Amino acid sequence: MKTQIAYPIGRKIINIREMTKVEADREGWDWDWEGTPVMELDDGNIIYASADPEGNGPGMLYGYLIDEQQAIYIEPIRVKNDN
Q: Is 23 helix (H, G, I), strand (E, B) or coil?
């Protein structure tokens, strides 16, 4: 049984970016999931969603804005490349 910890309480999200191929490979996931959001924390660690508790594939991050009473999904910021 996994030990429950309070991590990442108190950490700050410093970036939201796309998952890299190396990160997907480390999880054993197909690279077909390009665009999966990864949250980078101020301590250098990362967090990302999984399709299920078994880690069968990546997923999307969802949330809810209480003040606006609106559901949202979180996606990486895509920087336009003019090259």
A: helix
Three-state SS string across 33-68, please? HCCCEEEEECCCCEEECECCCCCCCECCEEEEECCC
3-state secondary structure of 32: helix
Residue that has been written with the tokens 């991050």 in this structure = 61
Alpha carbon of 54 to those of 12, 36, 68, 72: distances in Å? 26, 17, 33, 24
Encoding tokens for residue 32? 């077909």
Residue 37 near residue 20, CB atoms below 8 Å: no
Residue type, 66: I
pLDDT digit string, tens, across residues 16-62: 999 999 999 999 888 776 678 999 999 999 999 888 888 888 888 88
